[in-house]
Design a protein that fits this description.
About 20% of the residues lie in helices and about 30% in strands. By secondary structure, it is an alpha/beta fold. It is elongated, with a radius of gyration of 18 Å.
Length: about 180
């Protein structure tokens, strides 16, 4: 469901300017991973009316970029990796974005508990802007971006930025 917040600034026609936060999967993109007809045009109308669109997604940063481009959203802010990363989309930078904020946490207790509850669980750590370090390769389409198999001890040792549980018996995290 889109969220909207009024701001003090007003577009040229005197109407209140709004921030429109939109999820990607299941909101802007259907289950078939296609953008429904009219979606990009509707986003263009929102921006033309002077409002700001912020993508808010559980997707990793590498999974956000191509979708944002397909939606015509190459400038502005986005929140990804389940809220752990806030970025500014900037097409003039080499990466196409600048990290504004990143939240870190120690993943070892969550990973250890997941492995205790589900021995053999798949674990992944996001390397911001690249892809995933994994203890076991995930099925195609399950994680956005490339995967590199690493020892579980490497995944537990590094501080990470995001955590999400993926079905079944999988744990994923993000790191710079």
């Amino acid at each position: 469901m889109p969220a909207s917040q009024e701001t003090d600034r007003r577009p040229g026609d005197g109407a209140r300017q709004r921030l429109v936060a939109l999820d990607i999967d299941g909101t802007l993109i259907g289950q078939d991973r296609r953008i429904p007809p009219g979606t990009v045009a509707a986003l263009d109308l929102v921006r033309a009316a002077g409002h700001h669109i912020v993508l808010a997604t559980g997707r990793s940063l590498i999974g956000l970029g191509p979708i944002a481009t397909r939606l015509g959203l190459v400038q502005g802010y986005a929140v990804c990796s389940n809220g752990a990363l806030t970025i500014r989309l900037e097409p003039t930078t080499p990466t196409g974005y600048t990290v504004i904020a990143a939240k870190q946490f120690d993943p070892s207790p969550a990973i250890r508990q997941a492995l205790e509850l589900a021995p053999g669980a798949r674990v992944a750590a996001e390397e911001i802007g690249w892809g995933w370090h994994v203890n076991t390769t995930f099925d195609p389409g399950h994680l956005n971006g490339p995967q590199k198999k690493v020892p579980l001890s490497d995944l537990i040792a590094a501080p990470h930025h995001a955590s999400l549980s993926t079905p079944p018996a999988s744990v994923t995290t993000a790191t710079p």
